[in-house]
Design brief:
The protein is an alpha+beta fold. The protein has one domain: Multidrug-efflux Transporter 1 Regulator Bmrr, Chain A (Alpha-Beta Barrel), CATH 3.20.80. This is GyrI-like small molecule binding domain-containing protein.
C-alpha cells in the first residue's frame, strides 16, 4: 500500500457523467451500468465505452446489500441535454482527496481506500461526505480506478 500516492486536488472544470441512482447490492454495479447504457442507446446518445463512474453512498458493512445506495453513470461523447426524467447529469467539482490504482478491482479498490483513510488520519482531514466516488477505465487490458473523496 505504501506505493499508492494520495493527494488533495481541486476540480475546477467539472467532470460530468450521465447516470441514475440505484438501490441494491453493489455487486450488481455492472448490471446498473448496462441499464444506463441501454437508456442512452434508446435516446441515441453516444457514450464512451470502457469508462464508468460509480458513487457509493453507504458502507456495505453497515447496511443490507439490498438497501445500499449508489449512482452509476457513464461519460457521453459530447455535452448534450438528456431529455428524460430517468437519467440525470452529475457534475464532480470542488476539493477532493484523490488516488489512482490499477489491477484487480477488488484488491486495488480496497488498497486505494485504505491509503485514502490512512492519509485522512495522518493529516486530520474532515470529509464533506462519506460517499466514495470511483471512475473506472479499462484500456489495453488494464483496469484503472480513480477514487475521489470530497473534502
Amino acid at each position: 500500500m505504501s506505493n499508492i500516492s494520495v493527494r488533495q486536488i481541486s476540480i475546477v472544470n467539472p467532470i460530468k457523467a450521465v447516470g441514475k441512482t440505484f438501490t441494491g447490492d453493489y455487486s450488481q454495479s455492472f448490471a446498473y451500468i448496462k441499464e444506463v447504457q441501454a437508456l442512452l442507446d434508446a435516446l441515441s446518445v453516444k457514450w464512451i465505452p470502457n469508462k464508468v463512474l460509480g458513487i457509493y453512498y453507504d458502507h456495505p458493512a453497515e447496511k443490507k446489500p439490498e438497501d445500499l445506495r449508489s449512482f452509476q453513470g457513464v461519460f457521453t461523447e459530447h455535452d448534450q441535454a438528456i431529455l428524460t426524467g430517468t437519467l440525470s447529469i452529475l457534475e464532480l467539482k470542488g476539493s477532493f482527496l484523490y488516488t489512482k490504482v490499477s489491477g484487480d478491482p477488488t484488491q486495488a479498490i480496497s488498497d486505494g481506500y485504505a491509503a485514502l483513510f490512512e492519509y485522512i488520519g495522518q493529516h486530520s482531514l474532515q470529509l464533506k461526505s462519506n460517499a466514495g466516488i470511483q471512475i473506472v477505465t479499462f484500456e489495453e487490458g488494464i483496469i484503472q480506478t480513480e477514487i475521489y473523496l470530497e473534502l
